[in-house]
Amino acid sequence: MTRIWKVAAISAALSVMLALAAGAQEKAHKVGYIADLSGPMQDNYGPIVEGFEYYVKELNARGGIDGVQVRIAVRDDQLDATRAASMALELATSEGVNSIWGMSQTRTHLAVYQTAARNRVPATAMFSGIKEVLPPNPLAYAYSAGHVFEVAGEVSGKLAAKMVNGKGKMICNSIEAPGGVAACQYAEGAAAAGGLETGTVLFPPTVTEFGAIAQRMIAMKPTIVVAHAGSGQNVGLIRALRGAGFDGPILMGSHGLNETPLINALQGVGTLDKLQIVSRFASPDSTGKEIDAVRAAAQKYGKKTPITTTTIMGWSLATVMEAALRQCGYPCSGEKLNTMLENIKVDMGSLMGGPIQFTPKDHYGTTWWRVFQYDAGGKKFLPASEWLEASSTPTLRKQ
Amino acid sequence: MTAFVLTVVASWGIYALLGMGIVLVYRTSRILNIAGGEMAIFIGYIVATAIESGVPFPIAVPVGMGAAMALGLAIFWFTIRRVMGEPPHVGLILTVGIATILNGFMIILFGGGMTAIQTDLPAFTRIGSLRLPTPDVVAAFGAWLSIAVIAIVYRMTNLGLQMRAVAERVMLSAQRGLNVDRTVALSWIIGVLAAGLAGILHGERAFVALSASVVGISALIACLIGGMDSLKGVVMAAFVVAITETITALYIDPRYVLIAPVTILLVILIVRPWGLFGTVEEFRRV
Q1: Would you say B20 and B33 are in contact if contact means Cβ atoms under 8 Å apart?
Q2: How far A153 CA sits from the closest chain B CA (Å)?
């Protein structure tokens, strides 16, 4: 064999090996994940990504989906809508993912949804969600498996009325942002329908001094306070409300709350026995096979702090992802996956009060919500109500 | 009424304390420190983390104060002294950079999440028939005690005299043998210490989080209203800011709580560009 033939043979063999290796490498579902991992809300979004990753690691350890591994390309949007949109574009094009998951604050959602839709890749939000996923005409390729503020607001208003037996006054508070305003409008509508007088106090997202705001709320003579603000604002507000002498119930929307830092930050501010969270996810102290699996995975992968609702959120989102990819088969394009998501029903076991179900006309689905009561002795939030079913078409908006 | 007064006194004290730190460094180095809020919350995080690690509040506070002084010295040594005498915008941009770096460190070192500073004191303090929230009482008392100490140091000690001399006649001070660099360094140490104390008290009263550095904006507004080189001015203007915020939140609409003091600032700047108590300065290119 001449030298030139030897080189050709070696080259051909190498090419075949590289092609085989590439083929083996390509046999994976590639999904994208966008979240705020180093910006102002990394504390909320970080554990959600963790939960998502734990699930995928466990899934891959079991052999993946019908032998196909799942690879996640994680991107950090630092809560910036422009950055989030460019990352969605990069994931959908250069990275070649078939779906985008997670996402950070609602202000980034529309940009990501639109970018993903243009590239025919479905995007599914967790934690917060925008009304554009709700029926009857949800955005194409846009889904939410977390808290949509309109629905969360209506549920919180209903529960508030129930908690005080339809007597008294509910004051809702939130930040002056579309999601927060909507949450309080629906909370007021639902609470009024439940027999309560209502009021709302909104404040700028950057406010850090809550003394006067708490006094204003107390002057409105609330029987119950419903809070749809962020974690830090909830801490400031609860401290100020308790300090100003309000001992009534405070019901917080669990919009990405991490229980442990919240509980630590609230120690020593007076009575916390009337502190509740309303959430569509199980609390980390709940029981059940799926919750146990989250705890075990967190421990296995070296999580040093206890799991939180946000860890459960990430795990839940990955559960939906697995179900969609399994139905999609391999290879799974963004378009095909979108068709699967539009017709999906995933049993969430103990993670949530009911299944996650999307249809072509409803990219959010019926949800189930529960109240979790703070237990001062155990320093944890425990279930305090049955799961309350909520439609994805809230109607009780206060005009 | 008591709650209203206590809210105003506590906010006033925190803004005044943080504002005094900004004015002190401006007087000696002519640098508008817009990183005051970040410095405050950075120290707040240190104290909150120490307490979460089991260090008692009475020990964690001096630890935070020590860290604030070290931070002040480091900022002076590595940055400020190198731009002394440069045009004012250089120092201003420098503090923008310092704010960004501190934000980054708060994320890397402390996670950037939300926490609070626990004192282990009872939730309420009883004074006669009054039942007052302890965090507000601690914040008000701590802030005004710190302000008094800084005022005494500035007005009644040799160190304060040197700082005032540098603030008023830097060339003359140098010619008379005063170590200007050392004096400016001390003003940064005290300035960052004041910011750190304000951050600790804010964290004890409300919360510590990246977003809490907005407290620096209120203090900066107080400095600009009072006059950037007037300690008396910043204390009085801090009252204007605190009472405006409180009245707006309580009686008008909390959504305007940040707009109201800024509106006052704009009016003051139009009428008296150097602030209510500021010195009219003339910059000449030589």
Answers
A1: no
A2: 20
Domain boundaries, chain A: 26-146+286-365, 150-279+369-390
Q: Is B133 on the interface with A (CB under 8 A)?
A: yes
Percent of chain A topping pLDDT 90:
61
Cβ neighbours, 10 Å, residue B276: 18
Residues in A touching B209 (Cβ below 8 Å): 40, 232
CATH of domain A26-146+286-365: 3.40.50.2300
- Chain B residues lying within 8 Å of A172, measured CB to CB: none
Shortest Cα–Cα distance, B162 to chain A (Å):
36
Bridge partners (DSSP) of residue A71 are: A30
Scored b (16 or more CB within 10 A) or e, B31-47 reads bbbbbbbbbbbbbbbbb
Q: Sign of the CA dihedral B136, B142, B145, B150?
A: negative
ipTM of the complex: 0.83
Answer for the pair A376, A357: CB distance below 8 angstroms, yes or no: no
Q: How many whole angstroms from its chain centre is CA A62?
A: 25
The answer to whether the CB of A184 falls within 8 A of the CB of A173 is yes
Q: Mean pLDDT, chain B, as a whole number?
A: 89
* Shortest CA distance from B48: residue in chain A: A265
Position A21 pLDDT exceeds 60 = no
Which residues of chain A are within 8 Å of residue B7 when distances are taken between CB atoms? Answer: 211-212, 215
pLDDT at B126 over 90: no
The answer to whether residue A276 scores a pLDDT higher than 80 is: yes
| Contacts with B122 from chain A: Cβ below 8 Å | 268
Q: Which of A205, A211, A239 minimises the CB distance to B11? A: A211
Q: How many CB pairs under 8 A join A and B?
A: 138
CATH number belonging to the domain at A150-279+369-390, selected among 1.10.10.10, 2.40.50.150, 3.40.50.2300, 3.90.330.10: 3.40.50.2300
Task: Say whether pLDDT at A10 is over 80.
Answer: no
Residue-wise pLDDT for B198-254, tens only, equals 999 999 988 888 878 889 999 999 999 999 888 899 999 999 999 999 999 999 999
Provide, as residue numbers in chain A, all residues whose Cβ is less than 8 Å from the Cβ of B251: 216
CA distance to A88, A276, A358, per residue, from A320 (Å): 20, 28, 10
Q: For A68-126, write each residue's pLDDT tens digit.
A: 999 999 999 988 899 999 999 999 999 999 999 999 888 899 999 999 999 999 999 99
Measured in angstroms, the CA of B171 and the nearest CA of chain A are apart by 42
CB contact under 8 A, A208 and B202: yes
